[in-house]
Write a sequence for this structure.
């Protein structure tokens, strides 16, 4: 069954509503599920990348997450689909982390993190400082316990609200607040010595 | 006696939700009242805010490829794989039983061979009347070795088919997302 975008009375093509895509995906419609994949793959990939710090592992985790989501979509009981997807992605990241630990030749520190700069054409010095700071952020993130890292990434990099994070991590709101607070405090402590590099 | 935490320590854990606007108005006014007169907490709040702002600058990277799903793994393959696994297990158990039985000479004289001994037919030409018992050397000998070899062949075939299906299933899982 093809899952096409809807044509409105005015003749305008509009994308299908998320609820309808989910419903059709539940019935086994791969095309509809792929529309959901296209909507969320950027966020899921970035979550995996920041959790794992390794591009290849992030790719694998993202793919595993979408396959698991398709297989388990009948278990989705409403609420935020994005949060549900992030929960599956977080589990896929945990599996990848275990796998990376078993293969110590694959470095967790493989991918440099480059910060966004205000100016379009940064000077070489600004660029170098940004790279150095990005590297420190990446190092500080990878040093966090996985649950705090996940909470901080979801909040400060992906911009989820506290309720969505609670759903994505299957935790209470209090636990989410505490993880974000402790994670940020550790990051602050780690990055304090590079304060002069801050933009 | 309980040691009372200083007000600074109590408020420290509230700075992060304060930045995110997650505190009640009472808590907000408590924090704002405190940081006005406390340089250390004000400094910590600024430092925490700078860290959060820094994290906001971590860019969203474009995925290197699409993660759309290419095909659905057929359920029939999973059923076939399960059946093959079961058949292989049964064949291995039978083969093991045969080997062990053969090694312990269970089939030579007693256990199974007796049951396959045909009734002697006194009327048949060239057969001695042995009173209903088979003549020496004429009892049916169960071909244990041949059975073992045949069963070993079945085990190898089943195991091979199982391995091929399992490999295809693994490749199929990858192909599912290899769009």
């Amino acid at each position: 069954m093809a899952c096409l975008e809807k044509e409105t009375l005015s003749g305008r093509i509009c994308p299908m509503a998320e609820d309808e895509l989910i419903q059709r995906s539940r019935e086994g419609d791969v095309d509809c599920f792929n529309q959901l994949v296209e909507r969320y793959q950027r966020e899921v990939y970035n979550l995996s990348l920041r959790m794992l710090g390794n591009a290849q592992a992030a790719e694998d985790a993202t793919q595993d997450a979408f396959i698991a989501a398709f297989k388990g979509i009948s278990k989705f009981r409403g609420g935020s689909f994005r949060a549900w997807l992030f929960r599956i992605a977080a589990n896929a990241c945990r599996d990848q982390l275990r796998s990376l630990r078993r293969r110590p030749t694959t470095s967790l520190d493989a991918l440099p993190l480059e910060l966004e700069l205000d100016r379009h054409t940064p000077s070489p010095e600004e660029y170098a400082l940004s790279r150095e700071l990005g590297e420190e952020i990446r190092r500080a993130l990878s040093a966090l316990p996985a649950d705090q890292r996940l909470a901080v990434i979801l909040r400060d990099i992906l911009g989820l609200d506290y309720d969505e994070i609670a759903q994505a991590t299957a935790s209470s709101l209090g636990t989410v607040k505490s993880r974000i607070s402790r994670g940020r405090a550790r990051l602050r402590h780690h990055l304090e010595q590079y304060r002069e590099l801050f933009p | 006696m309980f040691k009372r935490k200083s007000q600074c320590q109590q408020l420290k854990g509230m700075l992060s939700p304060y930045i995110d606007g997650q505190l009640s108005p009472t808590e907000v006014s408590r924090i704002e009242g405190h940081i006005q007169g406390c340089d250390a907490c004000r400094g910590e709040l600024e430092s925490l805010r700078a860290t959060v702002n820094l994290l906001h600058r971590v860019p969203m990277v474009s995925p290197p490829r699409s993660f759309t799903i290419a095909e659905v793994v057929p359920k029939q393959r999973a059923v076939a794989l399960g059946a093959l696994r079961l058949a292989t297990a049964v064949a291995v158990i039978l083969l093991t039983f045969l080997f062990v039985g053969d090694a312990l000479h269970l089939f030579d004289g007693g256990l199974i061979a007796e049951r396959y001994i045909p009734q002697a037919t006194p009327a048949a030409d060239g057969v001695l009347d042995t009173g209903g018992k088979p003549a020496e050397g004429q009892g049916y000998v169960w071909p244990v070795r041949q059975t073992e070899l045949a069963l070993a062949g079945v085990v190898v075939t089943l195991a091979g088919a199982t391995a091929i299906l399992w490999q295809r299933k693994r490749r199929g899982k990858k192909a599912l997302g290899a769009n």
